[in-house]
Every structure is written in C-alpha cells, then in structure tokens.
Amino acid sequence: MTLLTRNEIQEAIKDGEIEIDPFDEQECLQPASYDMRVGNRAIVAKSLTLEELRKRVDRDVVKELQVDQERSIGIPAGGFALITTLERIKLSPRYAGHIGIRSYYTRKGLVLLSGLQIDPGFDGVLVLGISNLSPRTLTVEYKDPFCTIEIHRLNVPVDRPYSGKYMAEQREGKIPASDKDYLRTIETMSISDLTQALLTLSDNVNTMTRQLRLFWIPLAIVVIAAILSIIF
Prior knowledge:
33% of the residues lie in helices and 33% in strands. By secondary structure, the protein is α+β, with helices and mostly antiparallel strands. It folds into two domains: 2-189, Deoxyuridine triphosphatase (dUTPase) (Deoxyuridine 5'-Triphosphate Nucleotidohydrolase, Chain A), CATH 2.70.40; 190-232.
C-alpha cells in the first residue's frame, strides 16, 4: 500500500480513479493529504443543563442543523456531534483513505470518534462523529477545513468494493436515519453544569456540617446540665 502525494492525488483524479467534489486544489490539497471541510448538515447531541434535567425535557427531539444556513456549529463542553463533510468522495477499488482531525482542532480539544478508514469503493459524504473534550463550547465554522484524509493506493484492487447500507443516504449528502434515531436516546449533562452540580453539592454538605455543629453544641450543654442536676 502506497501513500499518495499531492501530484499523485491530482493524477488519480484526472484518471477518474478518485472523485472529490467540490475539489479545491489551492486551499485543501496538501503535500500528501486532502483537507475535508465542514458540510451542510450536522446534529449536536442534547447536552442538558440542571434546569432542563429538572423539567424532564422531551427525549424524542433531535434537531438536524442546516449548517450552510446557520454558518457554524457550537459543540458544548463534553458534547457529541455528527458532522457531514462538504465534499463527496468516491474511491475506486484500488484506493483507500484514512481520516484524521486537523491538529488545529485537536489542540482545542476535539476528538474524532469515527472509524479511521474510507473503504475502497466508497461513494458519498463522510459523516464524522466528533466529541468536545475541552471545558468550553467550541465553534466550528461552515466550510472550515476540520479533518484531513490520506489516500493510499493498494497493491491490488479489492474484489469486493464497499457497498454499505448507509452509503445511499451519504451519497445524497444526508446523515443516515439510523444515526438520528440513536441520537434521540442520548442526553448528557455538559461538563460546566456537571462541575456546577458538584460545587453545589459540596456547598450543601459544608452548610449541613456547620448546621450540625451548631445543633450539637447546645444539645451537649443541655445534656451536661441535666446530668449535673441529677448528681447535685
């Protein structure tokens, strides 16, 4: 298996072995990889505040964001999101790809949770699972290069190219319906609210401890006084 350089990626595209649409040679084609940009659709899993938990929010609502209209995606601290790439990529049976988050975003705390490989024969937009491990909300702009792919030429073409059941939806630029159904069941408390909840619990415990101390002092005095009255 051979990693393609910039020139080899261009040659493979000219030969029709690889398709990347839209293809941006100036901004996205790197020495040995291609940067994929934030696409039109995204889903950010619900991250509940303490107040929302008290109100028992509806579990059946998952909002699919139209990123081309919203212009950006906000992923809360500890949150999870599915993001489509702007580019549709098609690989012939002789090529495979590897995916990674750009270092700019990993330094901010974003982690890629999707599989690392684009299989030979794949055709569609990529749907990537992203988690925010930083302590604050991170914003990802529409069309911003947020992940990169390496393209590898295989020694021999595969005899069974990828034909997964979700590829038809991804070929149309959609997030698979099964992913949406799964995210309906996910509710998480954001890291900031979890921290606040722990601080509130700590404050309550300290207050209770002080109150108990104030209670036991007069009680002890009463008990001692009662014992002394019996003795004398």
